[in-house]
Amino acid sequence: MIRRSWIAAALPFVILALAPLYLGPYYLGLIGRFTSLGILAMGIVLVWGQGGVLPLGQGVFFGLGGYAMAMHLKLVALPQGELPDFMQWNGVEQLPLWWKPFTSAGVSLAAVVIIPGLVAGVLAWLVFRRRMTSVYIALITQALALAFATLLISQQGTTGGFNGLTDFTTLFGVPLGDEHTRIWLHVATIAAAALAYFFARALGATQAGRLVTAVRDGENRVRFLGYSPAPYKILVFVIAGVFAGLAGALHTLHLGLISPAMVGVVPSIEMVVWVAVGGRASLPGALVGTLLVNIAKDSISSAWPDAWLYVMGLVFILVVIATPRGLAGIVETVAARLGKTKVAAVAARQAEPIGEEVTTHG
Amino acid sequence: MSSLALALGQLFDGLSVASILLLAALGLSLSFGLMRVINMAHGELLMVGGYLVYVAHQVMPAASIGLGLPLAFAGSALLGAVLERLLIRRLYGRPLDTLLATWGVSLLLQQAARSWFGPTGVEVTSPEWLSGSFAVETGPLAGLAFAHVRLFIIGLAGVVLCAMVLLFNRTRIGLHIRAVNQHRAMSSALGVNTRRVDLLVFALGSGIAGLAGGVLALIAPVTPTVGQSYVVDAFLVVILGGMGTIRGTAIAAILIGVLSAVAETFTSISFAKVLLLLFVVAFLQFRPKGLVATRSRALEEA
Fold first, then answer.
1. Which of A222, B112, B149, B163 places its Cα 20 to 30 Å from the Cα of A116?
2. Does residue A206 sit within a domain?
3. Number of domains into which chain A is organized
4. pLDDT, tens digit, for every residue of A293-317?
5. A322 interfaces chain B, CB cutoff of 8 Å
6. Is B46 inside a domain boundary?
7. Taking a contact as any Cβ pair under 8 Å apart, which residues of chain A between 210 and 239 contact chain B?
8. CB-based contact (8 Å) between B228 and chain A?
């Protein structure tokens, strides 16, 4: 049974991976980009839907991964011994020390996952160690996103400032704009998403995964049973950070640009909306939600640029009020009502209540 | 200009920033303490106050303060009341969800402001009596100047703070608010209309945010994103001060306002933001519940 469900879960990824066969270049590019964002969204599911902590600063980890990738791409695009264009414009005469490691492709690829993971780990350790409430953590991560974006913009000479990093040419010596490269990039992105999905799913079945959910539903009970909740929360936070870093790197490769506008407060909270629409506790829901919201954003904001923020605002309000469990919740409920399968009915009955502890006052 | 005068000048600027932060954070802190609601649209209530002062200024240029500030208070309070009745009331007990839903509201309000007033800022010229400054001309403090408008802001924040303390400690409604804050179910059993208290506190906090936006309009242009740029700092104030305490919020606002003014002198504005965040996170390592924590023996707390 388990085998069959895993194969069923792999099918959509296979269909997506074959997209170059049936989609034009424009939509292929969109699907690739949005699938890479979906990896980040699955990280939010782990932290928020399953862990009960709302992260409002995932843009930071996305940015760390994205900038690590972009710095490498920027450096390999240069003739020997020259500085990136924006550094020359800003009068920077020597390559800053922290840029140097990124000349190596291996180091850069490692940095894409290690740096976000490390930063996420330190932050998580600081906030979970002292039992800060989820609300505090949400607000602190948001302040982090603000500080990160402000810092990037202000250090124009070494980060490219407001414009970010762009004008990439090659990756591993292969031209990026090439049609074959795009197809391989697409397949690699889908593979990374599939890997992230199965990893997150497998994690949920382990003891650590179950403890994470237990902490969400009753942190004190977990404590009374002799576990310390902090390590498990830190674990999922780090995994989500790594997912976000990976997503940032892939997204940078697809779009050919990373800028502070993609990492600040507003994009970070937008990421939460993808997950809220898809279903906060559902990994496939997060992927579908990310694709749907972003495709909608792409088509609405190109047709009526002003309308997008209105749509977005309404979506926020409606999802929270009408369907707190998102699309995944709707699907489960409908499946259960129709009584199609016993499994679905059981799943709907067992489906977790909205993931927050009921607060008692006084 | 002596370094002492320079330092005092920075301190003064820091105090005026702290005053606006205090006005912006009071409502946030109160509604969180009372209802466990995180209002992300709070910054936009501040923005509405700013635009209302602008409108008042357009209609009657002489009365930008006399008419504008009461209008800003009333308008934002009304909007806050509507928000509470229509949206927030449905989401009690789900603090992280109120955060998302009110963020949606803030997007709507921002876009509405952009459509009506344009994406660039609108300016209000302060009236004659606020545009000068007291300058120290001789002695060791020569060169130090206190802008009238900043003095006015500090004074207004002081008045609001005193009014809030009086309201909380000396009136019947304040008694009810404190009762609900301590034990919602018990006060409800004793006949306090808790829903009305919620509505009142939320509207009051929104109105004070509107005032903050109103005075902000006197020193800087009002833009559709002005609320967003203040709300994150206001949240830091609330976290640092401890949720739901007037005293904690006031101390934290002064601390953050002055600290960021000092940090900006020695580094840059962006580094000051990072330092501020580090300071708050480091501080919470020692006192995870903020400066003034409400003591409670309850096990589960938001």
1. A222
2. yes
3. 1
4. 999 888 888 888 778 888 888 988 9
5. no
6. yes
7. 220
8. yes
A127/B281 touch (CB, cutoff 8 Å), yes or no: yes
Please indicate, yes or no, if residue B232 is contained in any of the structural domains. Answer: yes
Domain contains A350: no
Tell me which chain B residues have a C-beta less than 8 angstroms from the C-beta of A54: 96, 99
Nearest by CB to A269, which of B103, B239, B298?
Answer: B103
- A294 domain residue, yes or no: no
Range of the structural domain that residue A126 is part of: 2-264
Test the A interface: residue of B28, B97, B280 with most A CBs within 10 Å: B97
Selected for mutation to probe chain B from A56, A136, A144 (highest B CB count within 10 Å) is A136
Q: How many domains does chain B have?
A: 1
Specify whether the CB–CB gap between B23 and B216 falls below 8 A: no
Q: Using a CB–CB cutoff of 8 Å, tell me whether B25 touches chain A.
A: no
Write out pLDDT tens, residues A106-136. Answer: 999 999 999 999 999 999 999 998 888 888 8
Say whether B104 and A147 touch across the interface (CB within 8 A).
Answer: no
**Chain B residue with the nearest C-alpha to that of A52:** B96
Cα(A43)–Cα(A113) distance, integer angstroms: 13
Question: pLDDT per residue over B20-40, tens digit each?
Answer: 999 999 988 888 888 888 888
Residue predicted with more confidence, B40 or B267 = B40
Range of B41's domain?
A: 3-127+149-300
Do the Cβ atoms of A134 and B95 come within 8 Å?
Answer: yes
Q: Is A292 among the domain residues?
A: no
Q: Which residue in the set B105, B232, B300 is minimally distant from A143, CB to CB? A: B232
- Domain presence at residue B137: no
Tell me the CB-side half-sphere exposure of residue A77, using CA atoms within 13 A. Answer: 17
* Inter-chain contacts counted by CB atoms under 8 A, chains A and B: 155
CATH number reported for the structural domain that contains residue B207 in this entry: 1.10.3470
What is the model's pTM? 0.88
